[in-house]
Amino acid sequence: MGSTDKAVITGFICRLCSKMNRFVIHIYGEEGERMKLAEKINAYLPITVNINDPLPKTACLHCIERLEAHHELMEQFMFARRRLNTDNKTTTVASSSTTTSTTTAPTSSTPPC
Ligand SMILES: [Zn+2]
Q: Which of 61, 88, 97, 106 falls between 20 and 30 A from 44, CA-CA?
């Protein structure tokens, strides 16, 4: 284990945006595990984190915030899909929306002369 890089830096490199940040969360730390950061990163992002890879295991708060927002969005989509799927099993999609109010052109009550 040669220490090629100087580890004494004023922060941690974010695994997601590669920027140096003083406030980070360790992906495999206590909080990172609680937030399931590794799972979310592997599920949603085009990168893969592994506890054994040599890359940084930290993510900045900004990236985590965005990851969480993305997760919420995905949960919403999953929930909606599940709901639509279960609804379609029995009920037909005949949500007759016959509210086609044909807006006739307003009779212009302006006399021609
Ligand atoms: Zn970041």
A: 88
Specify if 75 maps to a domain: yes
Main-chain dihedrals φ then ψ at residue 25, nearest 5 degrees? -120, 135
Whether 53 is covered by a domain: the verdict is yes
Distance 1 CA to ligand 1 centre (A): 27
Distance CA 58, CA 110 (A): 71
What spacing in Å lies between the alpha carbon of 61 and ligand 1's midpoint? 7
- Residue 51 CA to ligand 1 center (angstroms) comes to 18
pLDDT tens-digit map of 54-95: 999 999 999 999 999 999 999 999 999 999 998 877 655 555
Q: Confirm or deny that 113 is annotated as ligand binding.
A: no
Is residue 9, in this structure, part of any structural domain at all? Answer: no
Task: Give the span between the Cα atoms of 100 and 68, in whole angstroms.
Answer: 40
Rounded to two decimals, what is the model's pTM? Answer: 0.66
Task: Extract the tokens encoding 15.
Answer: 């695994």
CB atoms within 10 A of CB 27: 25
